[in-house]
């Protein structure tokens, strides 16, 4: 698609922010989330979890639990499929341990009983005989000689010889000759950075209701970002035929990437198969922290060279990410995003995927990118400070634009980084005077955005109203966006359209709601399905009028003759055509199935003011502004919401949130009291600027907006802290103890 | 099992419960009021906020048996039939919810706030809601919706 085919103006519905279709359900308590389903004869399940970071499972004695009244079944690894390979094997191993528990909280067995209380009591009666093994939870320690080997033989062919067996994948990319580039620099800054693992922190714990018969036919209700993916994985883990398992996505209480895989669903299905009864399984908050997928933790080295005028001459980064006891830490994304904002002649990035005795990482909003931005944008800030340069002007000088060869390979089509930097520079926030003790930081951020497999059906009703079936669970208001795009294309009121998230039996395959792909890909598919329906509507009008199909066009919800030569007929509104569609050729639906590949990359620039309390070490964010390119904001209020939500999560990551492991390898803060996400009194209002540089890959110019907003906050706040307190924090979170230690070191030094 | 007589959203309700069951467990599992959400079970997230004799509580920290003789208010009781409460209307209009899982608790909590304090400052709203976690919105639109609803309600009264 070229930009000429992109509609960029004269929108009637797109760009407005009407009430969301599920609004009333959600403010009245009617909306049904994962844990809100029940079934006749339902049992309740609970999971036995390893209290050890690393331990061989010598035996499981469930006799006492089985004797408890109300207990109906117990499952272990023996109740799942055998002979799996690749990622299916990894997922099964994570869902239910085989012969070794690999992290604190790893599932070892599960029980179904007639009440939740009995199930929980039964868990305590299951005796597991463990042989405790040495463990490692820190990424650098896990790579060091002599570290406990977590799973020998896991490394793939990419890993250079001589690395510790816990290094399982290696990545290298870039272009030019970095050493030659560094020779051209007037100043080189080189630093080491670390970020701890954080959790997505969705407020809804994982929950599901499963029913599976001995005939291999099943029904599953669960909160997930992608129910086709759940269907595919569960079928593999239980040895079912994929199509025999129907999965329905409930309303989802937040995901942020953490609900893109399975944790409890196969367990509930196995218990249901064993008992021939529906089984409900809901995680506790502590289980969510211990045994779902937090982010990777990271250890990073960054080296950037700059000329006195601000030109970056070379950039180099090494990124070591642990992603738990399984391969898959998103170190390629970290490496590829690190320098994506800049037009660089010489750039090199190296990534390591490292095993540690922690839960299997899962995606979290732009997975891998925020930590890279933290390290890189901190170094750029340091260079600007030392050379006396303005941070926005310096970034503008080096900013990637259309035609730039990206640090990760491709040449950029039209992109909007420069526009976000210019909008940030022009924003009153950037020139507002600071109060004593405050510091201002800025940072850019980048995310690729994804397309992915997508199916949409748009069906017309006899009264001319429209139902859209999409397969991407709605996390932040996407049903409103789909209805707006369909309204725009069909020329009928937004209220005449109802968008539903279809189950796996009602629509073709859809990839997960991830990668900021929903408004882009399901939106594109919705528009194309509407165009398909319009062609059919025009054909019916043409037949009625006795003129060729191409002599009919569609405008404002009506078929009408395409020109004066086509004949003189009054416009035929949609409801007139649909009222008689049964007699004129049958039901009318529009379809679209494809894997759209034109997701436009997205950039943001954030400005933050912060102050540091030198006595307590507490950092407060006093003002925050997000500037981000949306391509085209379909529903601006929900675009702002994505910007604000990403910034808030980034503030939490920067200042407070971290996985804290004890010397015993057990997670010490598995609750919201000790894993403290930002609360209302921690934050200021979060100002937003929506920049719109159309994406040539979408009919209305949409770029995904969900993820980029979490990339800049970590560095922006670190830069503000540096400006406010004169200390450069290179380890996240910048919690009060770390700030105090840095202030003490500064006073001593 | 304990026999409990209570009133929920104005209607008489009676149930049998285990001594260990919380008010949250019973509201959701026995009385089918699944608008009340469990986010943590430890009183940290506020998703299970209800009122008990007019006082805002986390229902996960109240034993079901304690509801004896009390009046409980949940999100299901905020609207008057088809007529949404001004807070509910404003939350939709201001896009003050994304996933919506925290919304029931936040609505119960803010309704309780406005009954005590019809003219709260931004800071007062932020501290009152500090026990209600929202992970999607960054709170901005929630705070604006509450302050503007309060203004509308003052004008209407």
Distance between the termini of chain B: 46 Å
Describe the global form of chain A: globular
Structural class by SSE content of chain A: alpha+beta
What name goes with the CATH superfamily of the largest domain in chain B?
Beta-grasp domain
Proportion in helices of chain A: 25-40%
Sum up the overall morphology of chain B in one term. globular
Spatial strand arrangement across the major sheet of chain B: 2-1-5-3-4
- Which sequence of strands runs across the widest sheet of chain A? 3-5-1-12-9-10-11
CATH topological fold name of the largest domain in chain B: Ubiquitin-like (UB roll)
* Topology, number of strands of chain B: 5
Low-confidence stretches of chain B: none
Q: What is the percent of helical residues of chain B?
A: 25-40%
| Radius of gyration of chain A over all CA atoms, rounded | 27 Å
Average residue pLDDT of chain A = 97
> Structural class of the secondary structure composition of chain B?
alpha+beta
Fraction of residues in β-strands of chain A: 15-25%
- The quaternary state of the protein chains shown equals heterodimer
Order of helices and strands of chain B: EEHEEEHHHH
Rg estimate of chain B, integer Å: 15 Å
Low-confidence runs of at least 5 consecutive residues of chain A: none
Any descriptors?
heterodimer, A: 749 residues, alpha+beta, six-stranded mixed β-sheet, 29% helix, B: 157 residues, DNA polymerase, domain 1, 2 domains, 5 helices, 5 strands, 16% strand, globular
């Amino acid at each position: 698609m070229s930009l000429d085919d992109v509609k960029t103006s004269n929108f009637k519905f797109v760009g407005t922010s009407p009430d969301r279709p599920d609004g009333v359900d959600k403010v009245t308590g009617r909306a049904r989330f994962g844990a809100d389903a029940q079934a006749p004869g339902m049992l309740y399940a609970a999971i036995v979890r390893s209290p050890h970071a690393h331990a061989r499972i010598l035996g499981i004695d469930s006799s006492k639990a089985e004797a408890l009244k109300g207990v109906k079944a117990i499952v272990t690894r023996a109740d799942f499929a055998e002979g799996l390979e690749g990622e299916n094997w990894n997922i099964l191993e994570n869902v239910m341990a085989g012969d070794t528990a690999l992290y604190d909280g790893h599932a070892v067995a599960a029980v179904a009983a007639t009440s939740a209380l009995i199930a929980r009591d039964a868990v305590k009666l299951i005796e597991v005989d463990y042989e405790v093994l040495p463990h490692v939870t820190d990424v650098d320690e896990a790579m060091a000689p002599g570290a406990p080997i977590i799973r020998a033989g896991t490394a793939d062919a990419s890993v250079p010889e001589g690395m510790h067996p816990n290094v399982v994948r290696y990545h290298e990319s870039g272009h030019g000759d970095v050493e030659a580039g560094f020779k051209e620099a007037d100043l080189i800054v080189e630093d080491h950075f670390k970020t701890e693992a954080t959790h997505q922190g969705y407020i809804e714990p994982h929950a599901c209701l499963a029913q599976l018969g001995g005939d291999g036919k099943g029904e599953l209700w669960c909160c997930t970002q992608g129910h086709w993916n759940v269907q595919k994985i569960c079928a593999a883990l239980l040895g079912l035929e994929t199509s025999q398992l129907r999965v329905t996505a409930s309303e989802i209480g937040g995901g942020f990437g953490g609900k893109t895989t399975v944790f409890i669903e196969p367990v509930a299905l196995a218990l249901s198969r064993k008992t021939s009864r529906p089984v409900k399984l809901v995680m506790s908050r502590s289980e969510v922290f211990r045994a779902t997928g937090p982010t990777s933790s990271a250890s990073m080295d960054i080296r950037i060279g700059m000329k006195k005028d601000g030109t970056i001459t070379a950039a180099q980064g090494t990124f070591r990410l642990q992603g738990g006891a399984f391969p898959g830490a998103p170190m390629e994304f970290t490496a590829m995003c690190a320098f994506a904002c800049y037009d660089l002649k010489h750039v090199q990035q190296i990534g390591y995927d490292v095993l540690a005795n922690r839960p299997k990482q899962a995606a979290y909003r732009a997975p891998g990118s925020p930590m890279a931005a933290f390290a890189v944008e901190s170094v750029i800030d340091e260079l600007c400070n030392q050379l006396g340069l303005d941070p926005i002007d310096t970034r503008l000088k080096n900013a990637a634009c259309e035609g730039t060869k990206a640090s990760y390979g491709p040449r950029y089509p039209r992109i909007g980084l420069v526009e976000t930097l210019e909008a940030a520079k022009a924003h009153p926030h950037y020139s507002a005077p600071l109060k004593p003790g405050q510091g201002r930081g800025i940072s850019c951020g980048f995310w690729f955005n994804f397309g992915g497999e997508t199916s949409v059906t748009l069906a017309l009703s006899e009264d001319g109203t429209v139902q859209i079936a999409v397969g991407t669970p709605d996390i932040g208001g996407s049903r409103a966006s789909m209805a707006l795009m369909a309204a725009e294309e069909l020329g009928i009121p937004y209220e005449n359209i109802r968008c539903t998230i279809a189950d796996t039996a009602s629509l073709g395959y859809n990839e997960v709601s991830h990668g900021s792909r929903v408004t882009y890909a399901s939106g594109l598919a919705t528009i194309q399905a509407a165009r398909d329906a319009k062609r059919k509507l025009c054909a019916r009008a043409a037949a009625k009028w006795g003129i060729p199909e191409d002599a009919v066009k569609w405008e404002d919800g009506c078929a009408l003759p395409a020109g004066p030569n086509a004949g003189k007929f009054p416009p035929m509104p949609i409801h007139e055509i649909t009222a008689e569609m049964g007699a004129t050729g049958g039901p009318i639906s529009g379809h679209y199935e494809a894997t759209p590949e034109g997701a436009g990359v997205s950039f943001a620039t954030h400005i933050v003011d912060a102050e540091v309390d030198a006595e307590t070490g507490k950092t407060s964010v006093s003002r925050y502004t997000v500037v981000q390119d949306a391509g085209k904001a379909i529903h601006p209020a929900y675009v702002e919401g994505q910007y604000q939500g990403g910034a808030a999560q980034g503030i939490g990551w920067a200042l407070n949130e971290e996985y804290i492991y004890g010397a015993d390898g057990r997670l010490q803060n598995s609750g919201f009291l000790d894993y403290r996400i930002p609360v209302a009194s921690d934050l200021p209002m979060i100002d937003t600027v929506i920049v719109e540089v159309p994406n040539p890959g979408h009919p209305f110019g949409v770029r995904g907006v969900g993820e980029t907003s979490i990339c800049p906050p970590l560095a922006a706040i670190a830069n503000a802290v540096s400006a406010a307190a004169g200390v450069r924090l290179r380890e996240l979170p910048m919690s009060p103890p770390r700030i105090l230690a840095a202030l003490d070191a500064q006073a001593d030094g | 099992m304990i026999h409990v007589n209570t009133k929920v959203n104005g209607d008489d309700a009676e149930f049998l419960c285990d001594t260990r069951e919380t008010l949250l467990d019973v509201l959701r599992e026995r009385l089918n009021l699944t608008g009340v959400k469990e986010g943590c079970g430890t009183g940290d997230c506020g998703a299970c906020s209800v009122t008990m004799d007019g006082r805002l509580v986390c229902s996960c920290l109240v034993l079901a048996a304690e509801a004896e003789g009390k009046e409980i208010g949940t999100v299901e009781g905020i609207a008057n039939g088809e007529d949404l409460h001004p807070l509910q209307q404003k939350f939709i209009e201001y896009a003050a919810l994304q996933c919506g899982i925290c919304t029931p608790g936040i609505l119960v909590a803010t309704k309780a706030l406005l009954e005590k304090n019809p003219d709260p400052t931004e800071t007062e709203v932020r501290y009152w809601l500090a026990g209600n976690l929202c992970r999607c919105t960054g709170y901005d639109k929630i705070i604006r919706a509450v302050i503007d609803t309060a203004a509308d309600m003052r004008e209407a009264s």
